[in-house]
């Protein structure tokens, strides 16, 4: 009763609209997950090396010093410190810290091999506090965020255009993608009810390629895949809960994808993560739109009426069968 307030569809809609049973959906979902695990096991890069975090931070600290050295070189090339600048070299170095830069870069080059091999203490000792702090922020926060953002853009672009192609091409939809849309009233594990010819090229090959291009290592790719799986399951769960974290990526995330599963909404909302491409290319339809809500209400009414007719017919058949049985019993007694 508490959860029914957030449910998008009624039991009648599930019984009358869905063409695939829950048993079939569970079976295919488990087969798909098992196949992807096996494929991932045999194709994963088991030679990938994970260096200590201090190694990556030191790499960025060295780049910061190199940048400082380039700035100091540019300053000299621009002619600062000559007579036209009306300031000697010592003054320029005092203002811009060029002397410190040159010295620190020289120390960096001198200690580079030692810093790379010795460990965190040597790393920190080789650089100033601010260099290490900035390098740590770049390595631990900025670079991973940019990688995840790039992965999301690539994956969402790939998913949008391949997903749309499966709808535009009638053969692809009829023979492959229609299997997923046999679940008109989505439920969580229905997210993975797909044809193998859709799962393998898109989910098992194309999606990991997007993550590889974005530069994600195995651990980052696993985390990104977990987030993607969570959003996919939530989008198919059939419940529009408040404070859904997926709404941070795509507003009204559950309604957005649920609308796509309706017979009248299949030409809209192809995106998986954000709604950028749908909004840009004119295939966006908000589930909270008045027209959409009217269609939802009409669908519920039709499903309820159809289920009521079926139940009435079943009751009539049962009553007729009872009368027939009673007639046979009376005749046999006579």
Strand content: under 5%
Characterize the largest beta sheet: strand count, sense, and whether it forms a barrel.
none
Radius of gyration from the alpha-carbon trace, in angstroms: 31 Å
Low-confidence stretches: 81-123
In short:
With 334 residues, the chain is mainly alpha-helical.
Structure description:
The longest helix is centred in the C-terminal third of the chain and has 44 residues, at 290-333. The chain is elongated. Helices cover 69% and strands 0% of the residues. The protein is an all-alpha fold and 334 residues long. Residues 81-123 have low confidence and may be disordered. It contains 13 helices and no strands.
Give short descriptive properties of this protein.
about 325 residues, mainly alpha, about 70% helix, elongated
Write the layout of secondary structure elements.
Blueprint: H1 11-17, H2 22-43, H3 53-77, H4 89-96, H5 98-118, H6 120-126, H7 129-168, H8 170-175, H9 196-213, H10 218-235, H11 253-260, H12 276-281, H13 290-333
Helix pairs in contact: 1-13, 2-9, 3-5, 3-7, 5-6, 7-9
